[in-house]
Automatic annotation (TrEMBL), chain A:
It holds the Pfam family Gpi16. It comes from Phoxinus phoxinus (Eurasian minnow). GO terms for cellular component: GPI-anchor transamidase complex. The lineage of its organism: Eukaryota, Metazoa, Chordata, Craniata, Vertebrata. This is GPI transamidase component PIG-T. Residues 1-25 form the signal peptide. The keyword Ligase does not apply. InterPro entries: PIG-T (IPR007245). Residues 26-42 have a biased composition (Polar residues).
TrEMBL record, chain B:
It is found in: Endoplasmic reticulum membrane. Belongs to the PIGU family. This is Phosphatidylinositol glycan anchor biosynthesis class U protein. One of its GO terms (biological process) is attachment of GPI anchor to protein. Pfam families: PIG-U. It comes from the Eukaryota. Pathway: Glycolipid biosynthesis; glycosylphosphatidylinositol-anchor biosynthesis. Coiled coil: none annotated. InterPro entries: PIG-U. It comes from Phoxinus phoxinus (Eurasian minnow). It is a multi-pass membrane protein. GO terms for cellular component: GPI-anchor transamidase complex. Residues 1-25 form the signal peptide.
Amino acid sequence: MAAHRCGLSLVIILIVSSLTHPSRCDTLTKSNDNTGEKQSVSDALREANADESNAGEEMNERQWQSTDVELDRSDGTKDSESFRLAPAKDQFEEELVIRPLHSGDIYASFQFRTLWDTDFLQEGQKVSHYRLFPKSLGQVLSKFSVRELHISFTQGFWRTMQWGQPFIPSPPGAELWVWFHHTVSDVDGNWKELTNVLSGIFCASLNFIDLTNTVQPSASFKPLGLGNATDHRFLRYATLPREIVCTENLTPWKKLLPCGSKAGLAVLMKSEKLFHSSFHSQAVHIRPVCQDEQCTNKAWELRQTLNVVFDLYTSGQGKKEWSLFKMFSRTLTEACPLAASSKVYVDITDNPEGELFELSPATPLLSQAVVLGDRRTYSVYDLTRAETFGQLRSFNLLLRWKGDSGDMLRPLLHAERYVAGFGLQTGEIHTVIYNNHPYRAFPVLLMDSVPWYLQLYIHTLTVTSKSRDNKPSYIHYQPAKDRHRPHLLEMLIQLPPHSMTEVTVQFERALLKWTEYTPDPNHGFYVGSSVVSALVPSMVAMNTNFTQDQPLFSSFVPVKEESSYFVRVYTEPLLVNLPTPDFSMPYNVICLTCTVVAVGYGSFYNLLTRTFQVDEPSPPLAKRLANLVRRIRGVPMLA
Amino acid sequence: MAAPLTFLLIVAVTIRAVLFRSSLAEIISERVEVVSPLNAWKRVVEGLALLDLGVSPYSGDVFHETPLIIYLFHFVVDYAELVFMIADGITAVALYLSIQTYNKNVFRKQKYALESDRYPADCLELLRSPKEMFYIPLKVAMFYLLNPFTILSCVAKSTCGLNNAIIALFILCTLKGSALLSGIMLALATYQSIYPLTLFAPALLFLLQRLYIPVNLRRSSFWSFTLQYAFIYVGSLVVITGLSFFLLGSWDFIPSVYGFIFSVPDLTPNIGLFWYFFAEMFEHFRLFFICVFQINVFFYTIPLSVKLKEHPVFLIFMQIAIISIFKSYPTVGDVALYMAFLPAWSHLYRFLRNIFLVSCVLLACSALFPVLWHLWIYAGSANSNFYYAITLLFNFGQILLVSDYFYAYLRREHHLTHGLYLKKEDGTEATLVLK
């Protein structure tokens, strides 16, 4: 499988790169006379160079970038602290957030943001100018007229009840949702090609996305970037819950970073450690954003996120102690030289006095951010400063727990799902949504995309909260077409305060053609996660001014109002068994059924074409012989 | 005769009412033998729910009923149980009246033949007496109403019961000689499940026979009546289809109902021959075999009409039986309809060759269906082949049954012309064979 995928990706990458090869030289020449860009990079570089003088030479993969560095060095030294004043053209930021979880696990979240300053709204403009933004993705964006693209690969399931809300949630397996530009005429054709190209870029089985697992949600997936497109004809959403995420997906993902995995936070991404974890999720989000408050400058934003949850508690013989080296088997030695900012945040909200755990090295820098309706305090380590790395020129964050942390987190919104019923004929999907807010009711959007081979009966849909019927105020249901499209069910449900809402719907399992089963049919078929999207009432005032400088992790979803924040919760994917035919029998079945039909045909044919006649049996052979002899002898025949 | 029929209806309704109220109703309505994707009540309710949501019921692949059924149940969904009981009652009464009419006809013909001395002398014991014919209509109604297959089908609220009622009314109208009503009913039956269009031939033959128009392709009277009947049939079919279009405002129901019947995309197990065959079919032969299997239903119409042109009622029975064996989504309700006719052929009993074997096979299969289904789907100790084997045997039994009755009918006709005790040239007893 992996070999196939990589082979495909190699072919596609080769094609893409051969098509667009000449642009590389242009990039260099153009960047020479573009001083604004140089400033940003040179500034970033100078800071990085203070620690590491030969960062540029190390990056063999990105030759043109290192050449650019050389150029900057010659004339860029004259520029003083102009970074904040001159508007940055392309920009790259990286950060790592570490949050010790109450369960004893460690949540590490990497975010890399690349801003690409290009006039994407102009149609028909060929963009051949790439600096920090990966060319492979840039070309995909312009070729398929993509407005917004979100793709995630996840291994494991995020346990909301134990771990709280993740910064950017994702369902198990692969998820892809794309908003196309409204000028696209053949959206399905573009979508098909796009999934195949992305499949090559990310070495994943995204080519298995076809019309049978693609839906067009009407309300659950709004664009996160600029523009308020509402026509869901240009939206495509698909999940592959069975997709297995591994090194082969991580490597192409890392290559999209300006520094690759050579410098900066990305050196921590060693796959043998990342995949030895309870949860692993990597994602790419591309969207158009404003660069300033007036929105005069627009840019493509590429956000690459990687979230890992390490279970260091059980693997560390019950000692609650972790360090960067323990987690990633690496320490940090430098920031990415191309990064405008490179920071490590550690969540110390639960530990204001230092009684729960001890961080070393200690940092004087503290930052407060409002994340997911909660004000959190972080220790900040700025990797662009030399003093972060200390004497050893190596930064290894160490955290030692002192006490036992107690309470379990109770996320305000939580959802889970399971299949009820027995046998292979019918079943019932139960989705349970919890509102743990003590006094506020709020509405949630529940989206379910169920494959066609589970036939949903929408008249059996029940929504009950507090053992009372809770009629959804909005239902968008698109029934499945066999072998063409899945069921799509979207509902707006009002969750009463401090309640449990149960949504049930019955389904019937179909018997498929023998070639439609997956190679291991008795393993079962996956049904993608349901998606619960909600504006959850916030405990503290949310920061609506999102252009203000704030940590990346708190600025992904635009906040429209102070009193609530947007949360998306994914439930577990389901594994459903279907009845199977006997796969070894096709010849036998064809023969036997045809025999029965032939018996019918034969007996009718017999009766239709023949008539009744008196049977006159021919005499036995001995008698005929005897008669022959008698005739010769001239004696009377035997009767 | 009205009193026993009323009593029978009361008994039948009581049985159904009791079953509707019991917990068995829900189990029965899930049985794949009783309901198919085409006529499951659950899907009717689903279609109504989709309409309420503002979604076309045909936009999905759950609902395959015709638009008229939606509009019928749009108004009477709360009285569905009553509707199905009434439908069964109508079927039984219609069959009762048809067989009564048929028997009268048969008896009249037999009398004329006797008077004109057309029967051989030794055939008197083959002739039917009014005494034995008296209870036959009642037996037919009883065979339909008290047949466990019908009861199951009714309790499961399978719309097959409605189709049966339409076919029974069609038979009644035909036998009563009303070409107009017969054509309309046939169009309705065709509209409901397409296959009854093969009943056009027997109905035409019967009506021609009734009007003493010989089947002669060179006679203008033959053609004028045929065209007249065909016009009634096609005209009402067009009207009904157009009405459905205006009810829904789209032609979506055509692929969703008739496309579904013909292309067999849903392979949910049933008692027919299609599901496992097409689940196990090689993809590039699928279209070929679908054509072969579907043609199989229509294939026998012309040769049977030629062979049985003097006996259109028996031809109706044969056609209904062939449809219920070879249709793409058969249920036990279809089987019940043609089984109701068996008492009408009770005089063929002496010529049936393997009725004992066939009854045993059919009984055993009926008992084994739920058992093997349970073993496959719930217990997991058997696999699909077990259930498939039983469907195969069940259909084999049905084929034997139908061909046996066909044989017996032909043989009796032969004896009626050639005498019962045939002698060879030398005077010894002869045996009759098909040659």
